[in-house]
Automatic annotation (TrEMBL):
Belongs to the aldehyde dehydrogenase family. Residues 12-428 form the Aldehyde dehydrogenase domain. This is Aldehyde dehydrogenase. Keywords: Membrane, NAD, Oxidoreductase, Transmembrane, Transmembrane helix. It comes from the Eukaryota.
Amino acid sequence: MESYGQMITDMRSVFLSGKTKSEKWRSTQLRAIVNLIEENAQKICDALQADLHKHKGEVIITEMELCKNDAINAINHLSEWMKPEKVAKSMMFMMDNACIQKEPLGVSLIIGAWNYPIQLILLPMIGAIAAGNCCILKPSEMSPKTAEFLHEYIPKYLDNDCIKVVLGGVPETTALLKERFDIILYTGNSMVAKIVMEAASKFLTPVILELGGKSPVYIDRNIDLNVVARRVSWGKFINAGQTCVAPDYVMCPKEIQGELVSCLKNAIDDFFTKDTKSSDSYGRIVNSRHFGRLQKLLEGTKPVIGGESDETERFIAPTVITDVQLSDKIMQEEIFGPILPIVTVKDHNEAIEIINSREKPLALYVFTTNKTVREDIRQKTSSGAFLANDTVVHGGLCSLPFGGVGNSGMGAYHGKHTFNAFSHSKAVLEKSLGMESAMSLRYPPYTEAKLGW
Ligand code: NAD
């Protein structure tokens, strides 16, 4: 396997030359990212259509606009983010300059996953560049057309000395992880996250781990189930359920389950027609391994909606299963596909117990008009994000940090949070040489009179 040592050594020299630290370099690269997206929109759509059967509309909303807006936000706020931040001072430091200076960490490694293959590379890169870092980007081999696009077009737009795309899968990533980086951002599953963290520990490299898990939805009584079903179905079935923050399972009181199912059916038919397979708005499972994994999860179940599949196209219909037990196979792992189990619960307190008995989720969704129920769930549970009365869309608000907690991840990004994640907050104290007599208190010999104790 090729060694990436020389490439990283060269990149580190460029970093140490200070090239990436100037505001001009950063804003030029960020502007180039906007151009890269705008001038190649059709190529991006074609790549994602080939990899995941993503409709152009979905690509615009969840990939291109998101990245473009994040880059524009970084351009607009760059000088403000780069400015040293004054801090409060106690009497002893009144004459001095005390501030926090954000400084770039150095050479960063960004390892992306396949489900949103543009976003998961570009969003971290935008913040890494804004913060003044060099970047090595490793897109997922599971979405090869998009990876090839990034490999071909990033060098055409961005500074090749400071930003490089490495193609490949496990062997290439393993070889990269043998090298020393100053920060690693990894998106993917928690098994591989442990490999990444172990490799990083050799150099005490900080890591940001963007992982997944089972994101629950609690649906309360006395709520407009038509609206709920549309918002849950959209978040669940977008990209054929292959979204890290997709609602994984629903919990609701038994008496509303029946009506919820009919509302979900209406929403699904409305979004994708009754013949989902022929809808160009509905995605496909990324590969046959994941298709087989999802088929196994469906074994022995009796879907009340969907359940159909076609291996040749890696198509699985939007599927809903009712009266699922917590011990069922489908409740043991992240589904990451278009299957929605419904677990009935007595009330929101039982939902809280279930949530707290499991790994901390990446997102937690609550549909309720009852403030007490909403606040109770928010206060008594822990999750990467908490969203009331919608699903998934919090990822589109770049002022909110996006990341997990516990098994769903470590660290967060998006917007200024990415800039912060790729920066070191350097404590700066610049003292004057005056006032030496006031300083004399700290010098030995220590006497009771001096210390006043
Ligand atoms: P994947 O298979 O694309 O793997 C992710 C990256 O890890 C790839 O670049 C791959 O080359 C690399 N990799 C895989 N195995 C490796 C190994 N043994 N050693 C070193 N590198 C290796 O993606 P995936 O893991 O199938 O992604 C799906 C998971 O990611 C889900 O759990 C999902 O919830 C999560 N996810 C999280 C986010 C988030 O932002 N939190 C976003 C997308 C996906």
